[in-house]
Write a structure and sequence with these properties.
- This protein is an alpha+beta fold.
- It is built from seven helices and 16 strands.
- It has three domains: about 90 residues, Immunoglobulin-like (Sandwich); about 90 residues, Immunoglobulins (Immunoglobulin-like, Sandwich), CATH 2.60.40.10; about 200 residues, no CATH class.
- Helices cover about 40% and strands about 25% of the residues.
- Helix 2 crosses helix 6.
- The longest helix is centred in the middle third of the chain and has 28 residues.
Length: about 400
């Protein structure tokens, strides 16, 4: 009578496409008179068999059972003698699907409860055809969302943000739920010991917002007045001198910036970058006051023509919005603070709102050298900017991007 066995250690599963797996399995055989072995692999919804190749006392078969990696299967090998002998093995198709994981833990801002936001950026690498399900254990008794990845190219790093209590260290584990044999991947998180008062006190937070407003208002007004000072028409020696006024406003802006840096910078994402970008947005918006033709104190100097003034205003505004606020601030820091696209648009909205006040201040200082038409043109540009920004915020809120 024949005897047959399946060698569990011989099973090799290789994903093919997204719906199949090429399984190689072998075993031993003795006294198989028919010299014919049928190997069947069964999984839910599929059952495929092939004939094995017999060499001496061993047999080998390759089967595509149309079962994906991680699926429970039953492997049956049968010698097809008149009196058959059969071996059966229940197992799971392990395709070597344990992922390679790299994780960074970015320390961000603090929430109103004084907890620090930590954003995990997790990148998985795994063979084609695998389906990998993971869940992050944040290490403080809470779990993240269950996420499943099935497609290639390998998924981009995905973010998860969690609020940690300050003054402790935590070990966060990424657990692979789809394959019990895969080890967890650990990341140590050390949270700062003290939360800043601007995060824990509503009063301090309100004062910080006031400091930001005053710095941007004073700084942008001073910046536009300095531009006007370069023109002898705007700043004639016998008239009310603009340079001392611009200098005084710049000193006041510097004082508020110092207060912001000392007391509020830990509550402002990308402090220096955001302040500079918003300052340029406001200055660029107010500079549209110099575009309409004369009487305009900046023509012929420093802008010889209205077109020169237009391009200068556009350039300053665009630099503030795109290279600084969007590319350098939002794109680079969105996984750190974290930021959403609505934070980007809100930063422009805040700047444009302050630009309205700055335009009136500049108009009041320049007096007869600019007209209501010039002020109106700047306000028109700012209003159009605000309309577009508000539309973008609503669109992204409705799309759940915020």
């Amino acid at each position: 009578m024949c005897t047959i066995a399946i060698n569990p250690a011989s099973i090799v599963a290789v994903p093919i496409g997204t719906t199949g797996t090429l399984v190689t399995v072998s075993g031993t055989i003795a006294n198989c008179v028919s010299n014919a072995i049928k190997v069947t692999i069964t999984c839910p919804g599929s059952s495929v068999f092939v004939g094995a190749v017999i060499t001496g006392n061993t047999w080998t078969a390759q089967v595509d059972p149309h079962c994906i990696c991680g699926t429970p299967v039953t492997i049956t090998a049968t010698c097809q003698d008149t009196v058959p002998c059969t071996a059966t093995l229940n197992t799971v198709l392990n395709c070597g699907c344990c992922p390679q994981v790299s994780t960074t833990a970015n320390q961000g801002l603090y929430n109103s409860s004084g907890q620090q936001l930590i954003t995990f950026m997790t990148h998985l690498t795994f063979p084609s055809g695998c389906a990998v399900t993971v869940q992050r254990d944040f290490g403080d008794g809470t779990l993240g969302a269950i996420k499943t990845f099935t497609s290639l190219p390998n998924p981009n790093p995905y973010p998860e943000t969690h609020a940690y209590s300050v003054g402790s260290s935590y070990t966060s584990n990424l657990n692979v739920l789809s394959y019990a044999s895969c080890p967890p991947f650990s990341k140590q998180v050390i949270v700062s010991t003290v939360a800043p008062s601007c995060a824990t006190s509503s009063f301090c937070a309100a004062v910080c917002r006031l400091f930001q407003f005053l710095f941007l208002l004073f700084g942008s007004t001073a910046g536009v007045l300095f531009i006007a000072c370069t023109s002898p028409i705007c700043n004639p020696p016998t008239a009310f001198p603009l340079l001392p006024v611009a200098t005084g406003w710049a000193i006041a802006a510097g004082a508020f910036l110092l207060l912001l840096f000392v007391f509020c910078r830990k509550c402002v994402c990308g402090f220096w970058l955001k302040m500079l970008a918003q300052l340029l947005v406001i200055i660029g918006a107010v500079m549209f006051m110099f575009v309409p033709p004369q009487p305009n104190c900046t023509q012929p100097l420093p802008f010889p023509t209205p077109w020169t003034a237009l391009w200068a205003a556009l350039l300053v505004l665009i630099i503030g919005v795109f290279p600084l606020l969007y590319a350098s601030w939002y794109q680079q820091l969105k996984t750190v603070c974290p930021l959403t696209i609505c934070d980007f648009w809100q930063a422009i909205k805040d700047a444009a709102t302050i630009a309205i006040l700055a335009a009136f201040l500049v108009f009041s200082f320049l007096g007869v050298f600019v007209t209501v038409t010039h002020l109106g043109f700047a306000l028109l540009v700012i209003t159009l900017l605000l309309i577009n920004v508000n539309h973008q915020i609503v669109v992204n809120q409705n799309a759940h991007n915020c």
